[in-house]
Amino acid sequence: xxxxxxxxxxxxxxxxxxxxxxxxxxxxxxxxxxxxxxxxxxxxxxxxxxxxxxxxxxxxxxxxxxxxxxxxxxxxxxxxxxxxxxxxxxxxxxxxxxxxxxxxxxxxxxxxxxxxxxxxxxxxxxxxxxxxxxxxxxxxxxxxxxxxxxxxxxxxxxxxxxxxxxxxxxxxxxxxxxxxxxxxxxxxxxxxxxxxxxxxxxxxxxxxxxxxxxxxxxxxxxxxxxxxxxxxxxxxxxxxxxxxxxxxxxxxxxxxxxxxxxxxxxxxxxxxxxxxxxxxxxxxxxxxxxxxxxxxxxxxxxxxxxxxxxxxxxxxxxxxxxxxxxxxxxxxxxxxxxxxxxxxxxxxxxxxxxxxxxxxxxxxxxxxxxxxxxxxxxxxxxxxxxxxxxxxxxxxxxxxxxxxxxxxxxxxxxxxxxxxxxxxxxxxxxxxxxxxxxxxxxxxxxxxxxxxxxxxxxxxxxxxxxxxxxxxxxxxxxxxxxxxxxxxxxxxxxxxxxxxxxxxxxxxxxxxxxxxxxxxxxxxxxxxxxxxxxxxxxxxxxxxxxxxxxx
Length: 551
Prior knowledge:
Layout: H1 2-12, E1 26-31, H2 35-49, E2 56-62, E3 65-67, H3 82-87, H4 92-101, E4 109-111, H5 113-143, H6 155-176, H7 180-201, H8 203-206, H9 212-236, H10 241-251, H11 287-296, E5 306-307, E6 311-321, E7 329-334, E8 340-345, E9 362-366, E10 372-374, E11 377-379, E12 382-383, E13 385-389, E14 395-400, E15 412-414, E16 440-441, E17 447-450, E18 454-455, H12 457-484, H13 489-523, E19 525-527, E20 529-530, E21 549-550
Parallel strand pairs: 1-2, 3-4
Antiparallel strand pairs: 5-18, 6-7, 6-9, 6-15, 7-8, 9-12, 10-11, 13-14, 13-21, 15-20, 16-17, 17-19
């Protein structure tokens, strides 16, 4: 930014605009949906600005990752998300290994619990984790935890050094081309080679031999096992930093970068003391645990009726009078944690003691309303109140609803047996339909809603079926009209009139069915309670008469 400001100053004095810093290469990582903006639209804007901005050098994009046989969906509780992955207790590096080895670089991939367990146990644990455990344990048991001198190199060790060099260069090439999945595969391939080296050398047998040559070979193998483990920790660092840190702690070294020559070299000196092996670095996942997680995150459809409003317990923490409208108070209400919202409410005539008198008051906040603005002040919700009407039909008295003192901030308020669930297709409640909720003060001051406030898909299904039938009949009539228009215009006109009449009759039947349904729902009453618990009802002030509206 400083360089750009200096360039602006130079241009203002007639100097040419600065060029982009060619020492910087900009890499971006994104999902495929973001490609058009970040590769065409935004770079074009930077080029048009002509201010020496660094342009995109490489975009690494991914396809989608699916969950088992479907898609990830928070609303349907399908899939594992960040906080849920943490709560399983599975180390972060295990998740990172699976997701990076399964990265959808060229095609969609799928998260499968069975595959997750297989890759963790048979690859990460049995390959890298097992090698680290065996190498460190052998060094401690056979050489007192100190790296021995390799004084018996053979062709086997020479071939091993060439193998390390080849894998390190393949790894660097993969990362240079941003083939992240391939880089991790190279790391695990080198780990497999390290296991094969140890298995073929059988150092545990060499140390038991009385022959001097076998003792020297055992020291050489141990030396190379430690070097291999240090190299693997370096390769694993970008992918699984916590696992790499655990390996470095065992080796008591802080090597984090590859040699500049991208070839095998000594990373842990002779005579260096390493730590005891300790517990296995990589946990094994158990089948019963995996089955439980699969069931837990497999998607549970909430079959409870859906309450139309997202009502939550809130508390007024700040309050002031509106700058230009004496009827309005501007309130800041707190929800759970650090969440808060600003609400503008016409409470001043009904709470004349001033806005400050409302601070500390628990209130009922309706959250799923579109953000609006009143006289220049944004409002992010609505406070529910009981409204008593005067003889003239206008509000005579407006009082805030009472919330149980034990109710936690942010708690949902809904009728027992129902739940509020975000409707992705219609995230906000349409306030024009407020009357359909039939919110009123019931017996004992408890706040009740009508059946219309609880979603019932039956009427929607009926309406959709009727509409489908109407559409089909109209299309059929139109097709007939088009076919017969030239042959018999009068018959076509009669068919169109008949179709229109049929539609009107069906519309009348639909309205009648809807009116009957609404009448039946009006007879149903549901008490609003904190967390749907009947023991914590929301109520109006004691002197508010039964039947008062709630708005």
